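Thread amino acids onto this structure.
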């Protein structure tokens, strides 16, 4: 048992002291522990404390804002209660309240006086939307003209709605509602209270003053809660009285700890979930409302996150310095290993020359001697494999060459020429001049294409065979195709890569002219652009090229390997041949936009002939 315990203890010590690890690693890890543990602990402590301080400051700041908002709103709503009392003390309203029936009210002619009195009270303040007075079994009068009285409550209030929500006392009730005329919506705060008979002092009706949100918007706009925080107000039933999103007004608020918010005086807490918010709330006993501020937690701790990141960067920088010092202290010991490592990297790149110098007879020296012996043996094996691979590759090339020649032999160009001549003769015998012309043109194109005497030709020869190709297409499209060659005399003797214009013209037919379906035109022009360069511009009026396809074509011209094949390889092939023949500054560029055709520009070197300058 003691032996087992001792063995376990030794293994633990080996792990803790890293006896089997390299010296550089030991120095690095121990230095890292000495740096990371204290700085990390201090950083974590300061981070937690800073977050706590910021939360407390945010709560204190939010409570100050809420108290100010509560004070403003209470004074604001109190002013409207004073306005209601002024209306109730008006003699006109006193006469209205003494009416017993609707017939008596109509015959008295008092409706105009009541309406005028309500209008004057409503027009005295721009934020009063409407004032309504209703006396049971008599009449309901408001401050709006009949022709303008188009706004009705969106909520489906029952006839006895106010009778239910209003107490039997003169205490006012404040709530929100939405008025609508079917097209526009107006959000208002309604202040309602009961009306009492001057004779019996019993409730006989109610008065409702509708106030728009103009002042509430002004109060809310003056509240700055961080960069993205906001404020909202809920009533005693948990419905939104104010929310920056007006579509939520009057709707049930869905907040965490809703009971705590509704029945508590004040408080603050963090919401749960991925996007946490700091909610701070205070209840207004005068209004029965609760004002709530919400601050995103990420914004709140932004400064603490900056402190945390600064500490983290400091740790990394200190670790870097410790690593440099550790490597410097151990460099005298690990230099032989470094030399061995350098030689191994050379071997990885295929360089088997040289030997690692043995400077000691310890384990590292023995390792170095073993590596040198292995390197000699590896060099011999690589040479054997290398020469074997060369022989295998040569045999493979010969086999491919034989297969290619066999494939080329399957199609005899003379047989094709003879066949085309036969078709031409038969067409002439039958009076089919068009077929004869197409057969002759096709034979010329075929002979021009397979003639490998030179990779470059004169521009006039390339233009001639492009004209032959367009003549064949003319038979196909007839009057729907027009083409023109604007080639000055100086340009005809210029050099161009063989078979470079016809593939681009064919591309125009395939991708631009055929899909358009209308009358098409191709223009081929030669233009001198400098003393040492000229361009061939091939322009069509086809459907054009989309921005995405145009970017793909330009990317293929820069990067695509012609051996990959696939769509668009003809233009890439021509571009690569021009670059290989004349240099990187020459080649093909493409300009186009959807619906505006395409312009293909071939840039080529200009060879000045005698008498050409200035032409």
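Threaded sequence (615 positions):
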């Amino acid at each position: 048992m003691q032996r087992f315990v001792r063995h376990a203890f030794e293994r633990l010590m080996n792990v803790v002291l890293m006896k089997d690890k390299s010296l550089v690693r030991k120095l690095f890890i121990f230095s890292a522990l000495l740096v990371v543990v204290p700085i990390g602990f201090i950083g974590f402590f300061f981070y937690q404390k800073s977050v706590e301080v910021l939360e407390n400051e945010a709560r204190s700041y939010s409570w100050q804002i809420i108290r100010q908002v509560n004070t403003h709103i209470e004074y604001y709503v109190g002013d409207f209660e004073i306005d209601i009392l002024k209306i109730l003390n008006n003699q006109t309203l006193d006469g209205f309240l003494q009416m017993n029936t609707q017939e008596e009210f109509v015959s008295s002619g008092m409706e105009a006086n009541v309406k005028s009195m309500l209008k004057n009270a409503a027009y005295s303040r721009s934020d009063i939307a409407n004032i309504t007075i209703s006396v049971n079994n008599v009449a309901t009068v408001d401050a709006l003209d009949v022709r303008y009285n188009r706004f009705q409550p969106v909520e489906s209030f029952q006839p006895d709605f106010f009778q239910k929500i209003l107490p039997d006392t003169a205490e006012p009730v404040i709530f929100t509602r939405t008025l609508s005329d079917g097209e526009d919506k107006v959000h208002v705060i309604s202040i309602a209270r009961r009306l009492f008979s001057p004779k019996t002092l019993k409730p006989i009706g109610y008065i409702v003053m509708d106030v728009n949100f103009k002042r509430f918007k002004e109060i809310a706009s003056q509240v700055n809660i961080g960069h993205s925080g906001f404020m909202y107000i809920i009533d005693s039933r948990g419905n939104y009285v104010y929310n920056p999103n007006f579509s939520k007004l009057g709707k049930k608020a869905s907040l965490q700890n809703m009971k705590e918010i509704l029945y508590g005086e004040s408080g603050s807490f963090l919401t749960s979930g991925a996007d946490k918010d700091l909610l701070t709330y205070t209840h207004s006993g005068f209004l029965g409302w609760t004002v709530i501020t919400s601050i995103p937690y990420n914004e709140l701790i932004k400064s603490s996150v900056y402190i945390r990141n600064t500490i983290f960067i400091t740790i990394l920088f200190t670790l870097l310095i410790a690593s440099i010092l550790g490597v410097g202290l151990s460099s005298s010991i690990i230099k032989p290993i470094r030399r061995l490592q350098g030689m191994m990297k050379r071997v990885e790149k295929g360089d088997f020359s040289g030997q690692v110098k043995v400077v000691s007879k310890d384990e590292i020296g023995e390792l170095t001697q073993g590596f040198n012996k292995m390197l000699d043996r590896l060099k011999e094996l690589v040479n054997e494999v290398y020469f074997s691979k060369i022989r295998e590759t040569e045999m493979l090339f010969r086999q491919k060459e034989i297969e290619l020649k066999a494939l080329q032999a399957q199609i005899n160009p003379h047989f094709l020429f003879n066949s085309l001549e036969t078709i031409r003769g038969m067409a002439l015998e039958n009076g089919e001049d068009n077929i004869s012309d197409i057969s002759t043109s096709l034979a010329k194109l075929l002979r021009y294409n397979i003639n490998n005497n030179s990779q470059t030709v004169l521009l006039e020869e390339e233009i001639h065979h492009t004209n032959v190709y367009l003549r064949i297409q003319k038979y196909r499209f007839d009057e729907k195709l027009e083409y023109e060659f604007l080639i000055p005399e100086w340009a005809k003797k210029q050099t161009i890569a063989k078979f470079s214009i016809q593939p681009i013209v064919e591309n125009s037919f395939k991708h631009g002219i055929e899909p358009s379906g209308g009358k098409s035109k191709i223009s081929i022009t030669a233009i001198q652009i400098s003393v040492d360069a000229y361009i061939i511009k091939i322009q069509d009026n086809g459907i054009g090229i989309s921005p995405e396809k145009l970017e793909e074509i330009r990317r293929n011209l820069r990067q695509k390997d012609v051996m990959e094949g696939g769509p668009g390889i003809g233009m890439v092939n021509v571009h690569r041949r021009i670059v290989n023949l004349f240099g990187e500054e020459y080649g093909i560029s493409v300009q186009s936009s959807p619906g505006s055709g395409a312009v293909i520009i071939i840039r080529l070197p200009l060879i000045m002939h005698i008498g050409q300058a200035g032409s």
